[in-house]
Specification:
The complex is a heterodimer of chains A (115) and B (112).
Chain A: E1 5-7, E2 10-13, E3 19-24, E4 31-37, E5 44-50, E6 53-57, E7 65-68, E8 75-79, E9 88-95, E10 105-106, E11 110-114
Parallel strand pairs in A: 2-11
Antiparallel strand pairs in A: 1-3, 3-8, 4-5, 4-9, 5-6, 7-8, 9-10, 9-11
Chain B: E1 4-6, E2 11-14, E3 19-25, E4 32-38, E5 45-50, E6 54-58, E7 61-66, E8 71-76, E9 85-92, E10 101-102, E11 106-111
Parallel strand pairs in B: 2-11
Antiparallel strand pairs in B: 1-3, 3-8, 4-5, 4-9, 6-7, 7-8, 9-10, 9-11
Classes of the chains: A mainly beta (115), B mainly beta (112).
Chain lengths: 115, 112
């Protein structure tokens, strides 16, 4: 399977703990995105990388959240001091711009539950 | 007002029905329009991508964009039980950034 992969698929943690998620984009896709989706809502944009550079950050990305893409391949999203409100599906997407068409392909997501 | 409005449903139809799913958006700067399908506990899967006003057809699916009224639609012909999922409309203004802006999604159930 050459699609976007995410690990772990599920994570249960206690409030106050730190968690880290990993995303492996489609090979050769230079753009990588993180979104968050809560129950009954559409995905909301968190941040965007082009290669290793983090070019956009949403105001949703509080200072407890940090994302990296150190070598322009996989990315990690870390949440420090988790809160119950952080419980959500965290989605990663990647794209390889072709002219004006920036088609984003999503991974299966990491479902986070904060107890 | 949210930038993209979508009736969450749920919408229930019998197998073989024609389904119409709709979204409205508020920002005329949005240029690109997408429909994603999301099965329960899975990531969104891209169904259709449109740029200009008009219709785009792909098999049983037709996407329609009316920029003058800021209205986008997805039609599913001959609906199947396997079409049961949540359908998300999304839009993008590439001049402002790369983020996709999604509606809430409409949950569709097709009964056999």
């Amino acid at each position: 399977d050459t699609g976007v992969s995410q690990n772990p698929r599920h994570k249960i943690t206690k409030r106050g703990q730190n968690v880290t998620f990993r995303c492996d984009p489609i090979s050769e896709h230079n753009r990588l995105y993180w979104y968050r989706q809560t129950l009954g809502q559409g995905p909301e944009f968190l941040t965007y990388f082009q290669n290793e550079a983090q070019l956009e950050k949403s105001r949703l990305l509080s200072d407890r959240f940090s994302a990296e893409r150190p070598k322009g391949s996989f990315s990690t999203l870390e949440i420090q001091r988790t809160e119950q409100g952080d419980s959500a599906m965290y989605l990663c997407a990647s794209s390889l711009p072709a002219g004006v068409k920036d088609t984003q392909y999503f991974g299966p997501g990491t479902r986070l539950t904060v107890l | 007002q949210k930038e993209v409005e979508q009736d969450p449903g749920p919408l229930s139809v019998p197998e073989g029905a024609i389904v119409s799913l709709n979204c409205t958006y508020s920002n005329s700067a949005f240029q690109y329009f997408m429909w994603y399908r999301q099965y329960s506990r899975k990531g969104p899967e891209l169904l259709m991508y449109t740029y200009s006003s008009g219709n785009k057809e792909d098999g049983r699916f037709t996407a329609q964009v009316d920029k003058s009224s800021k209205y986008i639609s997805l039609f599913i012909r001959d609906s199947q039980p396997s079409d049961s999922a949540t359908y998300l409309c999304a839009t993008q203004n590439q001049e402002a950034g790369t983020a996709l802006i999604f509606g809430k999604g409409t949950t569709l159930s097709v009964s056999s």
